[in-house]
Amino acid sequence: MNKMCDFDSIVIGGGMIGSSIAFGLAKQDEKVAMIDEGDNALRAARGNFGLIWVQGKGEKNSSYADLTLQSAKKWPRFNNELMALTKIDIGFEQKGGFDFCLNQEEFDERIILLKHIAENSNEQFSYEMFNHEELAKKLPKIGPEVVGASYSSWDGHVNPLLLLRSLHKGFQELGGKLLTHSVSDIKYNDSYFSVQAKNSIINSNKVILAAGFSNQNLAPKIGLKMSLFPQRGQILVTEKIKPFLDYPTGLIRQTNEGGLLLGDSHEDVGFDDGTNLQTMQQIAQRVTTIFPFLRDVKMIRAWGSLRILTDDRLPIYDYSKTCPGAYTVSSHSGVTLAAIHALDIASYIVKDGKLPISLNCFSAERFND
Amino acid sequence: MIKRIDSQKSEMIRIYFEGKVIYVHKGDTVASALLEAGVTHFQNTTSRGSQRGPFCMMGVCFDCLVEIDEQPNQQACMINVYQEMKIKRQANLLK
Asked: Looking at the domain A229-309, which fold is it?
């Protein structure tokens, strides 16, 4: 370590991505600080639905499909590791997941999409299509309008709030230091970085920028490009009911505590992370079409949260050419990718001093205009 | 123990808790009526199965959930008793 430095690495951002990478760095015996802004931040990691989701991802980019599937495959090991360290049961389950089709057209399009992804997969992505009768054997309460569903055995879910808590706890048990500050500036001083956090300056050899939308402001300070926009999703939560849904789905999942999460709106409303009646009605409508008996189930809360997206919906993984030791990650799939972030990406950064070649196509340089 | 301070005489109605007849004051909530009848164990929680009864009495803690006329998850503190209401202790939904 440079003698000016307080830490080997500073991870800016304590959300799903920052925490996973910081956890992974701390595991490599690095001296790591993770700087979390606090509750005035937009907090995408606290609004999460909690899916580990593979099917349908990477239609136009097989590297993304592969990255997603690699992470899903690592999840069981990652869960065991986390659980052994923190003793927190994050409700991890990976028995596969269904994505419903409400008309024949959706069903036919889904086949084309998943076939395309499977044919281009280096990771042997596989899927199954279930028609109504076949699906009713797995999910007996589906309504008559459900034409069928696609199934991928790699899909799963976790309690995202407990995952985040477990990552923070694990990180600290591995010797990591969690700071709660807003980062206003980062400077590169030829061989090390100075991070301005509130009134103090913290020095480190490496900086990993995982600050959600704040990446947009901080990236240019260390020679990184960034191009992000928000997309809102609303989530409805119901009262706890008897377990009836053995598999997570794209729109609805039942937690291990009995409550249901309903979701999947995609709204272009800027940085407004609120809720509105119209969208909640649409979500409820679709879900009660799939499971008509849910009409009698009470909703107890709802929230909005902002996905961190790029124009092509793919993540950004990048390293700085002008400030060696600076990295950045932006993605809206922090739960799915948590395993690979913690187990692999962090160790690449420590051992190789760079990101794996397979991530080259996710450089923000692709947004050159 | 809960003690009634309202001295006004109100009409008594008949309800059932776990199949047992209880006479209660019309206008009471299910929670206050059951508490007055000596019931404190309203439900077993879904997460750990532990015994719970009314805590906040104002609709926010969800500790007083009971089954009313076969509808689960009813907040006893937010619903008034009615003639012939059939109430059951709510069992752990996950068991």
From this structure: D-Amino Acid Oxidase; Chain A, domain 2 (3.30.9)
What letters, b where the CB count within 10 A reaches 16 and e where it falls short, cover A86-105?
bebebbbbbebbbbbbbeee
Q: How confident is the model at residue A1 (pLDDT cuts 50, 70, 90)?
A: low
Q: Quickly name the fold that domain B12-89 has.
A: Ubiquitin-like (UB roll) (3.10.20)
Q: pTM for the complete prediction?
A: 0.90
Task: Using an 8 Å CB-CB cutoff, list chain B residues near A293.
Answer: none
- pLDDT tens digits for range B22-81: 999 999 999 999 999 999 999 998 877 899 999 999 999 999 999 999 999 999 999 999
- Give chain A positions within 8 Å (CB) of B94: 242-243, 257-258
Maximum C-alpha span of chain A = 68
Q: Where in chain A are all domains bearing CATH 3.50.50.60?
A: 7-49+161-226+313-367
Q: Is the Cβ pair B73, A258 closer than 8 Å?
A: no
The ipTM (two decimal places) reads: 0.71
Distance from CA of B29 to the nearest CA of A (A): 20
Distance CA A188, CA A190 (A): 6
Is residue A32 within 8 Å of A11, Cβ to Cβ? yes
Residue B16 to residue B39: CA distance in whole angstroms: 12
| Residue A199 binned pLDDT confidence (cut-offs 50, 70, 90) | confident
Token readout for A229 is 């926009």
CA distances from A224 to A35, A220, A330, A347, B58 (A): 19, 5, 12, 21, 53
Residue A195 has, within 13 A of its CA and on its CB side, a CA count of 29
Q: What is the DSSP letter of B91?
A: P
Q: What is the DSSP letter of B87?
A: E
Topology of domain A7-49+161-226+313-367, per CATH?
FAD/NAD(P)-binding domain (3.50.50)
pLDDT in tens, A129-177: 999 999 999 999 999 999 999 999 999 999 999 999 999 999 999 999 9
Contact A242 B94 (CB under 8 A): yes
Helix (H), strand (E), coil (C) string for A186-254: EEEECCEEEEEECCEEEEEEEEEECCHHHHHHHHHHHCCCCCCEEEEEEEEEECCCCCCCCCCECCEEE
pLDDT-derived band at A295 (thresholds 50, 70, 90) equals very high
Structural domain boundaries in chain B: 12-89
Q: What is the DSSP-derived secondary structure letter of residue A66?
A: H
Residue intervals of chain A classified under CATH 3.30.9.10 are 229-309
Number of C-beta neighbours around residue A292 at 10 A = 15
pLDDT value for B3: 85
Triad A70, A73, A79: Cα angle to 5°: 120
